[in-house]
Amino acid sequence: MKKIITLFALVMTALVALTACAPTAQPVTLGSNAIVIDVRTPSEYSEGHLEGAVNIDVQSPDFASILSQLPTDGEYYVYCRSGKRSAAAVEQMKAAGFTNVTDVGSKENASAATGIPIVQ
């Protein structure tokens, strides 16, 4: 019985960890002042991005400095190639005091969730 409880606890911990940082899969409604941020590299951005998205490379040494120029109470939707960098960017933004930040995952997920087309 103790082994079953331990196994159950491990499975539940894994599920919580995975879903806690999972990007939104639900459609989102962007406010009129919402900003969509692509946190990939400039070369990735130039290969295709959501129409109107701002490119701020999360791996750039200037990322925190650029964030400091944005209003922390704005509405932000963040995406990347797979969702890993967007999750990291959202965590950094929240740590910096941003209050309305949504991780919309990959470029394709972000397009589907927001209804914004991908342009090149």
CATH class: Alpha Beta
Q: Based on helices, strands and strand pairing, what is the structural class?
A: alpha/beta
Largest sheet: 4 strands, parallel
Give me the strand/helix succession: HEHEEHEHEHE
- Share in β-strands: 15-25%
Distance between the termini: 57 Å
The CATH superfamily label reads Rhodanese-like domain
Quickly give the CATH architecture.
3-Layer(aba) Sandwich
Write down the overall mean pLDDT: 85
What kind of assembly state do the chains in view correspond to?
Answer: single chain
Specify the helix fraction band: 40-55%
Rg over CA atoms: 16 Å
Helix count, DSSP H or I runs of 4 or more residues: 5
Spans where pLDDT lies below 50 across 5 or more residues: 1-22
Spatial shape? globular
CATH overall fold name: Oxidized Rhodanese, domain 1
Strands, count: 6
Strand order of the largest sheet: 3-1-4-5
Number of domains: 1
